[in-house]
Design brief:
Strand order of the largest sheet: 2-1-3-4
Distance between the termini: 52 Å
C-alpha cells in the first residue's frame, strides 16, 4: 500500500470522523456556544429552495441555531455546460419535490434573480425568521410575477447596498467552511449538500444528543426524508421495466460509480434488464471543472454514504493517468469476452476499497485472469485508436441524455444521475410506446 493510499484510508476512516466530531464538540463546549448550522442558498439554484423548505423544520425539531447564508448568483452568460447543469437542477428538484410531497416549483425568470437576491438579504436582516424566509422564496417559485414585483418594490436603496456587502461575506464564509456550492448545510467541519443528505445530518444531530426539540416536527421531517432515502424497490422495477434495455455510464475515477455499480448490477439481475456498460473518461480529462473543494467533498461524502450502506470504501489509489488507461484496455478486453461487468466491479473495488494500483499489466492481471482474459489482448488494446473513438461516443451519448457527470443509469431513454436516485425507477412506469 502506498503512503498516499494509507493517508486516504486513515483520513476517511470512521475513527478519524469520530475524532473530528469530538474536537468540534469540545471547542463548542469550551466557548460556551450552541450548535450552529449554516444553510447556503443561491437564487438561481432550485435545489437550494427545496433544501430551505425542508430545513425550516430543523431549528424547531433540534436544539440548534441556523444561519441563512445567501450566495451571489451566477450572472454571467451561461455556456453549454452551465445550461445543462441548470436544466438538470430544475428537473432534479422537481423529482424530489414530488417525492417529498411539496408543491411543484417554477424557478423564477432570470430577470427577477437580482431582485429576488436583494429581497432575501433584506428580509433576513430585518426578520431572521426561517418560516417567513421560506414563504418569501415560495413567492419567487410560484410563477406569480405580480407577487414577485410586490416583494421587490418594497426594497430601499439601503437594502440593496446591504445585500452586496452580505453576499461578499457569505461567499468568504463558504470558503472558510471548506465547501464549494449553494444548496448545502455546513455544520462543524462537514457539509451536507441537497435534501438527499439531510438524513445524514439529522442522524448526526441525534447522535450528538441534539434531538431535543419538538418531537412531532422531527417525526414529520423524518417521514418526508423516508420518501427519498428508500432503497430501490426491486419488485416495482421488475414490474415496470422487466426485460428492457439499460445503459450504465460510469468512470473508474468516480467514487459514486463505485457506490452504484454493484447496486445497478443487482437491479439488472432482478429486473432481467439487458445492461450495456459505457465507461467515460474522468471529468478532468473531458474539460469539466473540478475545484479542489468539490473533489474533497465528493470523496468524503462518498465515504459517508458507503458507511451508511455498509459498503467497503476509503482505501483508495487514484487511477488518473496510466491507471485509467490500463483499466480501459482491461474493460474492452473483458467486453470482447462478455465479462465487462465482472471486470468493472472488480476494478472499482480495487481502486476505491482495496488501494490497488492498476497502472500496469502486472497490476491488472489479477483482475482479468479469473475471467479468462489474456494479457496479450489487453496489451494490444492499450494504444488502439478504436478505444478512443468508443469513449468519445460514450461521452456524446451521455451528453445527449442531458448529463455530463456519472454515474447515470438510463432505461428506455429515461435517465437518473447519481447512486442516490436509482429509487426513482421504482416510482416511474414504463414509458408508453
Amino acid at each position: 500500500m502506498s503512503v498516499k493510499s494509507r493517508f486516504f484510508q486513515l483520513a476517511l476512516s470512521e475513527g478519524a470522523l469520530r475524532l473530528s466530531r469530538t474536537d468540534w464538540r469540545l471547542r463548542r463546549a469550551i466557548a460556551g456556544k450552541r450548535a450552529l448550522l449554516r444553510l447556503y442558498f443561491s437564487v438561481d439554484d432550485p435545489q437550494s429552495y427545496l433544501l430551505l423548505r425542508m430545513a425550516t423544520m430543523i431549528p424547531r425539531a433540534y436544539d440548534v441555531d441556523m444561519a441563512f447564508c445567501l450566495l451571489p448568483h451566477d450572472a454571467s452568460t451561461p455556456d453549454h455546460l452551465t445550461r445543462m447543469q441548470r436544466r438538470w437542477a430544475t428537473q432534479d428538484a422537481t423529482e424530489f419535490a414530488a417525492a417529498l410531497g411539496e408543491a411543484p416549483l417554477t424557478p423564477p425568470p432570470e430577470r427577477w434573480l437580482r431582485g429576488f437576491e436583494t429581497a432575501l438579504a433584506s428580509h433576513w436582516r430585518l426578520h431572521g425568521d426561517f418560516e417567513r424566509l421560506a414563504a418569501l422564496c415560495k413567492t419567487f417559485y410560484s410563477g406569480d410575477e405580480a407577487a414577485m414585483n410586490a416583494a421587490v418594490s418594497r426594497l430601499s436603496a439601503h437594502d440593496q447596498s446591504h445585500a452586496v456587502i452580505q453576499l461578499r461575506k457569505n461567499k468568504a464564509r463558504l470558503a472558510e467552511d471548506g465547501h464549494y456550492a449553494s444548496g448545502a448545510i455546513c455544520f462543524d467541519g462537514e457539509a451536507y449538500r441537497g435534501v438527499e443528505r439531510l438524513r445524514h445530518l439529522t442522524n448526526r444531530l441525534r447522535v450528538e444528543r441534539l434531538a431535543t426539540g419538538d418531537a412531532a416536527t422531527r417525526q414529520r421531517l423524518t417521514t418526508k426524508l423516508d420518501a427519498i432515502e428508500r432503497p430501490e424497490t426491486t419488485g416495482a422495477l421488475a414490474k415496470h421495466w422487466h426485460g428492457k434495455s439499460a445503459t450504465f455510464f460510469f468512470s473508474f475515477r468516480s467514487p459514486y460509480s463505485r457506490l452504484a455499480i454493484d447496486r445497478v448490477s443487482d437491479l439488472a439481475r432482478v429486473g432481467r434488464l439487458s445492461l450495456d456498460l459505457k465507461p467515460v473518461m474522468p471529468m478532468v480529462t473531458r474539460g469539466v471543472p473540478l475545484p479542489e473543494e468539490k473533489r474533497r467533498y465528493l470523496v468524503t461524502d462518498a465515504a459517508r454514504v458507503a458507511r451508511r450502506h455498509g459498503m467497503t470504501f476509503g482505501n483508495i489509489t487514484d487511477p488518473l493517468g496510466d491507471g485509467v488507461r490500463y483499466a480501459m484496455a482491461g474493460f474492452f478486453a473483458a467486453k470482447a469476452a462478455g465479462k465487462e461487468l465482472a471486470f468493472a466491479r472488480a476494478a472499482m473495488r480495487a481502486i476505491w476499497s482495496e488501494g490497488r494500483r492498476l497502472d500496469g499489466l502486472k497490476h491488472i492481471a489479477p483482475l482479468l485472469k479469473p475471467l479468462g482474459v489474456s494479457m496479450p489482448s489487453v496489451e494490444r488494446l492499450l494504444d488502439d485508436p478504436a478505444i478512443e473513438v468508443a469513449l468519445a461516443e460514450n461521452a456524446q451519448a451521455l451528453e445527449q441524455l442531458g448529463h455530463w457527470g456519472v454515474p447515470v443509469l438510463a432505461i428506455d431513454g429515461h435517465a437518473v444521475w447519481g447512486q442516490d436516485r436509482l429509487w426513482q425507477f421504482a416510482t416511474k412506469k414504463e414509458p408508453s410506446s
